[in-house]
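Practice problem 4.
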């Protein structure tokens, strides 16, 4: 079991969620995105990868300090803590094709990022 927990920051969080609001499922520019705590901090939720999602300003304001259930909202994806290999990919640094293949081999096939990384490898080799 991997015990590495990457540092949480908005830039990497938004990349994890592909700049998509996990409530309305629309993609937004960075300036319109916020970090939402699924279980609000005021209700005992933590500032952790598994409790935060990308949300547009409108959805975050609507949800407020409620849980999604209390606000009548539903998540379109489950938040997750990236592995070390996923975090390297999410950091957005320039990664060479052979390095990308190495990262892909270390990202679980069940990860939402696996398909995204595999697609970028195919595009790069075309």
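Answer key:
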């Amino acid at each position: 079991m991997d015990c590495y927990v990457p540092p949480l920051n908005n830039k990497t969080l938004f990349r994890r969620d592909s700049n998509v609001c996990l409530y309305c499922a629309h993609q937004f520019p960075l300036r319109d995105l916020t970090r939402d705590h699924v279980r609000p901090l005021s209700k005992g939720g933590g500032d952790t990868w598994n409790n935060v999602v990308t949300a547009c300003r409108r959805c975050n304001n609507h949800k407020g300090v409620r849980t999604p259930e209390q606000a009548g909202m539903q998540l379109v994806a489950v938040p997750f803590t990236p592995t070390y290999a996923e975090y390297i990919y999410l950091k957005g640094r320039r990664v060479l094709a052979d390095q990308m293949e190495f990262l892909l081999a270390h990202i679980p096939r069940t990860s939402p990022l696996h398909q995204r990384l595999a697609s970028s490898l195919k595009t790069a080799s075309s």
